[in-house]
Write a structure and sequence with these properties.
- The complex is a heterotrimer.
- Chain A is mainly alpha-helical.
- Chain A has one domain.
- Helices cover 79% and strands 0% of the residues of chain A.
- Chain A has helices at residues 2-9, 11-23, 31-35, 44-61, 66-71, 74-81, 87-91, 96-112, 115-154, 156-174.
- Chain B is mainly α.
- Chain B has a single domain, classed as Transmembrane di-heme cytochromes, Chain C (Fumarate Reductase Cytochrome B subunit, Up-down Bundle).
- Chain B has 13 helices and two strands.
- A two-stranded antiparallel sheet of chain B has the order 1-2.
- Chain C is mainly alpha-helical.
- Chain C folds into two domains: 46-201, Fumarate Reductase Iron-sulfur Protein, Chain B, domain 2; 209-518, no CATH class.
- Chain C is built from 24 helices and seven strands.
- A four-stranded parallel β-sheet of chain C has the order 2-1-3-4. A three-stranded parallel β-sheet of chain C has the order 5-6-7.
- Classes of the chains: A mainly alpha, B mainly alpha, C mainly alpha.
- Chains B and C meet through helix 2, strand 1, helix 8, helix 9 and helix 13 of B and helix 4, helix 5, helix 7, helix 8 and helix 10 of C.
């Protein structure tokens, strides 16, 4: 489709815009900090955001299956799932890709009458969004799992004694 | 808003001498009374602040350790980043005061391709250092307006400051540096969202004030010549306690002087007191020899503790049942 | 169809949506606790507060309740408390006055890096208190108010303090980078003291403190329970290594009193470090004893108040005196060592009944501990290895590729950096370091220290631990690191959560667990598993048979 070619041409700008829109969901004071891309260790949020949105868009434009493209966003979603966002705010950022595409391709879409193609692209973004919701949900599940695991580790000795007790009861019953 | 407030304040401070310079009696006020008052406020204020801080004791020895501690003989320890002795502390403090050691740490790691490259974020350090040293050199250069004959070290510093012999009158390196550094520090606060957020008038105003002082000074040296002889007469007069009020000096001079007086007077009551405070910071000025030398807390008081006797009294039965040794059977 | 749509459809207009949250001025203290679940901790239970004779709130409250049951004169108490502390702590007075807000600390806090919440910048965290200080104690603040960053003390400010000062792990990373050494840990400690005076404290601090005060350990396990656990572990040890060991408890006349964080004998993966201690002490024949009365090294008082540090810490010397030991050896713990290193000798009377620590095996005199008479186990073990007094087979750790996390307090309040590394280089073959600016004095916190390692604030902990997590992930991807070692009980309790989330597949362990694995013990049968019961490298098949 023609629209993919246009998107490919403007890929860098789209990623940039998409990231900016995501970063705008953070407190104003932190935005300049998160906009730095390179500091993987001193700024993991910004670094992950930039590298993963880029990877996602690469696959998206290569028309890879949507699940694969969405999988690239896993860690961004994981990060947002433990930040101070509501579930909608945490995953809704995928839809900002629509906004970035509309803004940057507005002229071309009108000139070449690419509305139908745009709809296809947007439907695919909707599917990315659904996949993102799955990721979010898994991440939250993981967090709750971690919570219970931690309690278990904390009372490790008690658990160990308890199982031992059960074991010895079993053996007694056996004999 | 606090930025606008600071700008407004600065304009008012400029307007006062600008208008006042032509009113009879005002030069006396601006040239003699206010400078003396400012210096008096500075001296009293500074001493009071230091005494105020020093009055509170240092109950615990809490150095922030930034390197290996002194422990086993064969392990090399960080003598200055984690000092064990008094002299180690002296060096640590000197590094901090003269070279801004901690700011120099501002590091970052960048991922370039697959390789991590350790860079450092030294802009703040460099600008801070440039500003402070330029300020110092300019301060020393100004001795020539207060004493006659001009001391040798002042002329020497002046010579090196103008080493490149650019322009006429010769451009002082520090004049350019201080403006650049102040500009950077100001822009940094303006442009970085984090810093904009945390700055208030107490941060903007000193920056703008010093920028005002520097620009009026530069204007007088390079662009609008003033009567230097009269200015020096005032300076030497002030220092020898026999002030002479010069007549007909350019108002620009009074603006410069008035802003300097403002800076001097506000110094003890502003964040500029970090000059004194850094010497008293307990995380930097103490040796990390806690386990070797006992530090005494002057207000150490007794607290309620749970003694072994109380403990054994409560658990004697279970301890006995578990065959554990007891103090009292 | 497309041509008619073309006229009305202006994509850029449809797209114009403002997603950004409204930015309020920072002096506004309002916090919506209900919406911020996962970011705060439950308040202290009354039973624990009463046991410790601490101020109790009028009502039982959760932070998302409106009424926190403050006393009528809460404002007086806070202001009087602040005045008293300004007179007592030069640190507080100086830190209130000299900050130039240069911003060097801003991006050094793991909570800011993870959340982007501006009040998590160390400078802003301190401003939360400074703003009140200015209003009450400076002329400029009284006159110009908000313009110079001053504001009134209200109940909302107290709640904001509760929210943000229990979002600081007292890790001191910001203090390393501050040109004036301003230490947020010190400010956090003092604000927490103030809050406790009006009954505001968190349960994961006051209940462990109450337990430690009463029973000696933070879980409240009674003496026979401690004994039982240690003996059970000794049996377990015998099963794994084939070596029978003695566990001396409350033994009078032993040469050395050994104190470890109590999690070492109750929790996992601490437990394997305990087995490591057992191996080492047995092999060198150390004449030592455990204590049930002073069975908690990890001093939770540090997270509460200076008084509470002292109340718990008093047990150490008292027990050393009662048992008649010569000196004290301390196990793997972080905050415990901040107290033992920086507070103990000042708070307690001189322990004249003890001797300057001297290793009975190598004869080394630990002169740097001549006042407190207390040595860190890593120092002790490093000295043993240096003198060749123990036989090690590092290949027994070949199934691990360890990396080492410097715990905040040993790193930045002590400087214990080389000893653990020296040990690890001798007991493992595959040790790798994480990136330079995430270790040693620049180490990133686990995000759960200083009493925050509970479960109701898991979101906050995970994002605060992200900087550490991403460094672990890096060595996992690049060097196949599969275990994160540390010398801190809180780390061992909370890093597994962090690794599970940010670097799944990386385990967490202790330095002396690796020592225990590598240590060749006299008369031992061939070791087939490590202390976790996992098969050693090259012995997997044997296990399967």
């Amino acid at each position: 489709m023609q629209i993919y070619r246009l998107l490919e041409q403007k890929k860098a700008a789209i990623i940039e815009r998409w990231c900016d829109l995501v970063i705008d969901t953070y407190p104003a004071e932190a935005r300049d900090f998160f906009k730095q891309k390179k500091n993987r260790f001193s700024n993991p949020v910004g670094a992950q955001l930039h590298s993963q949105t880029a990877a996602c868009l690469d696959l998206f434009l290569a028309e890879a299956p949507d699940e694969e493209a969405a999988a690239c966003l896993k860690e961004v979603i994981q990060i947002r799932s433990v930040q101070e966002f509501s579930p909608a705010q945490a995953v809704g950022f995928v839809l900002y890709l629509k906004q970035a595409v509309r803004e940057l391709l507005a002229g071309e879409i009108r000139t070449h009458a690419l509305f139908i193609e745009l709809l296809t692209v947007e439907s695919r973004i909707d599917r990315l969004q659904l996949c993102a919701f799955d990721s979010y949900s898994r991440s939250r599940d993981k967090m709750h799992e971690i919570r219970t695991d931690e309690l278990r580790r904390r009372s490790f000795m008690a658990m160990k004694r308890m199982t031992l007790f059960e074991d010895s009861e079993d053996t007694q019953e056996d004999t | 808003m606090s930025l606008w407030f600071s700008i407004f304040l600065l304009i008012v401070l400029i307007a006062i001498p600008l208008i006042g310079a032509s009113i009879p009696g005002f030069p006396l006020l601006l040239g003699v009374i206010i400078p003396y008052a400012a210096i008096a406020i500075f001296l009293v204020g500074f001493v009071m602040r230091i005494i105020g801080w020093a009055k509170s004791p240092v109950p615990f020895r809490i150095p922030t350790t930034s390197g290996q501690e002194k422990s086993l003989d064969w392990i090399k320890y960080a003598k200055y980043d984690n000092p064990h002795t008094f002299w180690g502390v002296v060096v640590r403090m000197a590094l901090e005061i003269f070279f801004f050691r901690s700011l120099f740490r501002n590091t970052k790691a960048e991922l370039r391709g697959q390789k991590i490259v350790y860079g450092s974020n030294k802009y703040l350090w460099a600008a801070g250092l440039a500003f402070h040293y330029s300020f110092l050199v300019i301060f020393i250069r100004h001795f020539k307006y207060f004493v006659e004959p001009i001391p040798g070290f002042v002329s020497l510093i002046q010579f090196f400051d103008g080493f490149f012999q650019v322009g006429l009158p010769i451009l002082y390196l520090t004049d350019a540096l201080i403006v650049a550094a102040l500009g950077f520090l100001l822009l940094r606060r303006l442009l970085d969202s984090r810093l904009r957020h945390l700055s208030h008038a107490a941060d903007w105003f000193p920056l703008l004030l010093i920028l005002g002082i520097a620009s009026t000074g530069i204007l007088m040296r390079y662009f609008i010549k003033i009567d230097v002889v009269s200015a020096k007469e005032l300076g030497t007069g002030l220092l020898s306690f026999s002030p002479v009020v010069p007549i007909g000096v350019n108002p620009l001079f009074y603006i410069h002087l008035f802003l300097v007086c403002t800076l001097i007077a506000m110094f003890p009551f502003s964040k500029l007191m970090h000059l004194g405070g850094i010497f008293l910071s307990p995380t930097r000025n103490l040796a990390n020899n806690n386990r070797a030398v006992r530090h005494v807390n002057p207000w150490n008081y007794d607290v309620k503790v749970h003694t072994y006797e109380e403990y054994e009294d409560e658990f004697r039965d279970v301890m006995k049942a578990a065959d554990m040794p007891l103090d009292k059977e | 169809m497309s041509s008619s749509a073309e006229v009305k459809f202006k994509p850029e207009e449809i797209a114009r949506i403002d997603y950004s949250p409204p930015s309020e001025h920072w002096t506004d203290p309002q916090i919506d606790f209900e919406a911020k679940r996962g970011n705060w901790c439950y308040s202290g239970v009354h039973k624990s507060l009463k046991y410790l004779d601490l101020p109790v709130p009028k009502t039982k409250f959760a932070p998302n309740d409106q009424d926190w049951g403050l006393p009528e004169n809460w404002k007086e108490i806070i202001l009087e408390g602040l005045r008293k502390r300004l007179d007592r702590f030069r640190s507080l007075k100086v830190f209130m006055d000299i900050c130039v807000r240069c911003g060097a600390c801003a991006d050094k806090c793991h909570f800011f890096i993870g959340s982007g919440d501006p009040k998590n910048m160390p400078v802003m965290r301190a401003e939360l208190l400074r703003s009140i200080y200015r209003k009450e104690y400076t002329t400029a603040g009284k006159i110009m108010g908000k313009m110079v960053g001053a504001r009134d003390l209200t109940i909302d400010v107290l709640k904001e303090w509760y929210y943000y000062f229990y979002q600081c792990t007292e890790c001191r990373r910001c203090s390393v980078f501050c040109p004036y050494g301003i230490d947020t840990a010190e400010i956090t400690m003092l604000v927490r003291e103030l809050l406790a005076e009006v009954g505001m404290s968190i349960d994961w601090i006051v209940t462990p403190v109450a337990n430690s005060f009463r029973t000696g350990n933070h879980l409240g396990i009674q003496p026979h329970g401690v004994k039982d656990s240690l003996e059970f572990a000794a049996d377990d040890f015998e099963e794994i290594t084939g070596i029978k060991i003695d566990v001396p408890i409350n033994k009078k006349g032993a040469e050395v009193l050994f104190i470890a964080p109590s999690a070492d004998y109750f929790a996992e993966p601490h437990y394997y470090t305990l087995l490591g201690y057992f191996a080492l002490f047995h092999e060198i024949g150390l004449d030592y004893t455990w204590s049930t009365y002073a069975s908690e090294g990890g001093n939770f008082g540090l997270f509460h108040s200076h008084d509470m540090i002292k109340r718990l810490n008093a047990k150490t010397y008292a027990e050393a005196k009662r048992l008649g030991v010569k000196w004290i050896l301390g196990g793997e713990c972080g905050h415990m060592w901040r107290v033992y290193h920086q507070y103990m000798s000042t708070m307690q009377d001189e322990p004249s009944f003890l001797e300057v620590p001297k290793s009975p095996i190598t004869g080394t005199v630990f002169d740097h501990a001549r006042a407190t008479k207390m040595v860190h186990l890593a120092e002790f073990t490093a000295d043993l290895i240096r003198h060749g007094k123990i036989k090690l087979d590092p290949s027994r750790n070949d199934h691990w590729t360890p990396t080492y996390h410097d715990s905040c307090n040993p790193a930045r309040a002590m400087g214990l950096l080389e000893e653990p590394r020296y040990i690890l280089q001798n007991v493992c073959n595959n040790f790798v370091e994480m990136p330079e600016n995430t270790i040693r004095e620049n180490t990133f916190c686990c995000g759960s220290g200083a009493g925050l390692g509970t479960d109701e604030n898991m979101e906050m902990r995970l994002r605060g631990g992200m900087p550490r997590g991403s460094a672990v992930r890096y060595v996992q991807e690049n060097n196949d690191a599969n275990i994160l070692l540390c010398m801190c009980a809180i780390d061992k309790a909370t890093l597994p959560a962090l690794c599970d989330f940010w670097a799944p597949g990386v385990e967490v362990g202790g330095v002396h667990e690796m020592v225990g694995n590598a240590l060749i013990m006299t008369g031992e049968p061939e070791r087939k598993t490590d202390l976790r019961g996992q098969p050693l490298k090259g012995k997997e098949e044997v296990e399967n048979e």
